[in-house]
Amino acid sequence: MNGTKSILIDGYNLGLEKGTGVATYARNLSYEIHELGHQVAVLYGNRGSPQRDQLLNEIAFFDGPVEQHRFLELLERAKQALRGPLSYKAKQVPVTGRVVTRTFSSRLPYFDTLYNSNDVFKNAQGAFWVWKRLVNIRLPDQPDLAHWTYPLPVKLAGRPNIYTLHDLVPLRLPYTTLDNKKRYLKLMQLLGKKSDHIVTVSENSKRDLVELVGIPEEKITNTYQSVQIPAKYRDKPEDQLAREIEGVTGFDYKGYFLFWGSLEPKKNIARIIEAYLASDVQTPLIIIGAQAWKAEKELALLNEGMRSEDDRRADKDAPNPVIAAMARQRGARKRIIRMDYAPFSLLVSLIRGAKVALFPSLYEGFGLPALEAMLLNTPVICSNTSSLPEVAGDAAFMVDPYDTQAITQAIRTLDADADLRADLVKRGAAQAAKYSPENYRARLQSLYEKFL
Predict the structure, then answer these.
(1) DSSP state at residue 212
(2) In this structure, what DSSP letter does residue 400 have?
(3) How many CA atoms lie within 13 A of 263 on its CB side?
């Protein structure tokens, strides 16, 4: 690999207001490409109002998407689809510093150049639905390689195109996503044929891509991911950390269980809540995550309406053990805090301050939160399925995610056993070290050398 090259990544998930695992992946990838000595270009598909004035273009990019009526949006997408799988042009976004962007600092990737093409990803998906082909992307200065961080029906014209396919959850657990499964499989198969190479993040996902999609094994590279958290958050003094946690939650440092992630079926929230209530532990639980598809069902046990004070007094005096158990559960619900969102700095503090991190997910392509907890010296309860045994090794307390009783027992065990928690913290630090930025960077360099 001779000299500095330019590598393009997409901002498809980076444009979301709230973070996702794929957004973290893309952001980390941008910094590692930079560390390898290459120029980083990022393509966004924001809807804005193109302006001739460069300052107005800069303002429009950071001003957020232009609202459009749903009918007009669908009409525009249909028009774009009927154009056929033509090329889409992107324009460079001027970033001069005249617009203050520090608000976005935790969400922006590393970049040397930013590009934007209005609604390019949505329009490309519309074209794919009709034509079953990838659309070309053309930039003012074509980068040397495109590394797409998500299965998108786009390609950089005239350059090598690599696609990261994180997992096959829509095919493996179809009832947990809203994807059109037929269209999703067709896109995966097309990317397998048309791409120059496929990247994935675990051996488990690699097997799925070979067995379910039929991509040749030699065309797939597992680079894993890296786990990294800035030192200014990771090394915050414990006394300062404890005050911050108590001020935000009212709970003590190392005095609560924690789950964070999207509230969707594959994250197994309903069983986490049921297991926590059944455990009858006094340690509180914090749940952080935006509501996604079927969130109401997942949170049903937590959101069940509270009864009147008279009913509660009657329950307390009732000899019926079932009624008494229900009363205890209502009391337990008071020890559960749910937050839609936590800024990254606060989230890191809450992970560091947790007694135990809960991650008994039904399926994960990689499972970065488990390693983040290990890096931050917090013991983990996680699943014994999909990629998690491979990624977490022997450094987590593993359970069958479909067995609520097993999750309940794990919560009770780790709540009571300080020595076991300390042992998991020690093993977790060693496990997280295997996924260092340096190791990840070496795997990326080995891959890029084949195409640059």
Answers:
(1) I
(2) -
(3) 22
Helices marked H in 209-320 — which ranges?
231-234, 238-249, 269-279, 295-298, 300-303, 309-317
Answer yes or no: is pLDDT of 133 > 60: yes
**The amino acid at 108:** L
State the CB neighbour count (10 A cutoff) for residue 438: 10
Q: CB neighbours of 271 closer than 8 A, spacing ≥ 6?
A: 360, 401, 402, 404, 407
3-state class of 114 per DSSP?
Answer: strand
Residue 358 bridge partners (DSSP): 381
Residue-level pLDDT at 62: 75
| pTM assigned to the model | 0.88
Q: Looking at this protein, which amino acid is placed at residue 41?
A: A
Question: Across-strand partners of 163?
Answer: 148, 198
For 154, counting Cβ atoms within 10 Å of its Cβ (0-12 exposed, 13-18 middle, 19+ buried), the class is: buried
Domains of the chain in start order, with CATH, are: 6-226+437-448 (3.40.50), 231-433 (3.40.50.2000)
Q: Helix, strand or coil for residue 147? A: strand
What amino acid occupies position 316?
A: K
d(CA 390, CA 167): 14
Whether 33 shows a pLDDT value over 90: the answer reads yes
Between 56-65, 218-227, 263-272, 400-409, the lowest mean confidence (pLDDT) is in: 56-65
Q: Measure the CA–CA gap between 260 and 389, rounded to whole angstroms.
A: 19
- For residue 106, the model assigns a pLDDT of 66
| CA atoms of 90 and 138, how far apart (whole Å) | 6
